[in-house]
Amino acid sequence: MATAYVFYIAASLGMVLWVGHTLYRNGAVFLRDVFDGEERVNAVNRLLLVGFYLINVGFVLLTSSLGTGAATLADQYQNLSIKLGAVALLLGVMHVANLSALNRARHRRLMESRRLAAGRLPGAPYGGHPVAAPAPY
Known about the structure:
mainly alpha; 4 helices
């Protein structure tokens, strides 16, 4: 019983650390498209990594005691498979959610850049020119 518990903790935390490190290392490329300045990119990347670790390590620790009443080796294997599968699914969902959020932020930044390049100021009335509204007749 204790062997399954230790194996689950070790395998889950290994997955979390490996995925977190991979996302941190490769995520900076995507963050550069979203944010100006290397300092901001590094800070956001580190903050995302901390949040990623907190959520996933918390999930691993919360689920570690589930299914501890399994009597047979087959039941222990089944419980371990279910818990490791849940960790893998959580990692995948978080990855897709982060990519989606970064893509939306990148899209907003590109749209803003295009507006500025076209000579229109964001939020300015009458075709984007920063002039006062014409007086009514």
